Amino acid sequence: MKDLVLQSIDDDKGFDVQTISLSQQVKDEDSAIHDSSLADYIIIASGTSTMQIKSIATKLKDRLNARGIKDIRIEGLMQSDWVVVDIGDIVVHLFRPEVREFYNIEKMWNMPTPTASHDDLITA
Asked: Which domain holds residue 54?
């Protein structure tokens, strides 16, 4: 499904596409890696205008629906500065470039995950 999402974004001229695997993001206090309950992947892309972002999101939903994937939620279509397409295992964020730069969510998800033990929290 990830490849279908990436191809759809590419077909509609989305740019600066980044894929973040969340399986490497969740660690427990023993630094064991676990799957994220949020999603398997976050895909972030930019569009040149609100019209293009809206088009990328709606065409993505249409293409996924044609493949039998029906439970897709889209948020932010009204303004289309930042649109989130929740496909379940994949969450797609579509931004106008200046909005993407302002929120910089790539930095949040690409940062090393700090781990703290229970003892560290008690002494803090």
From this structure: 2-123
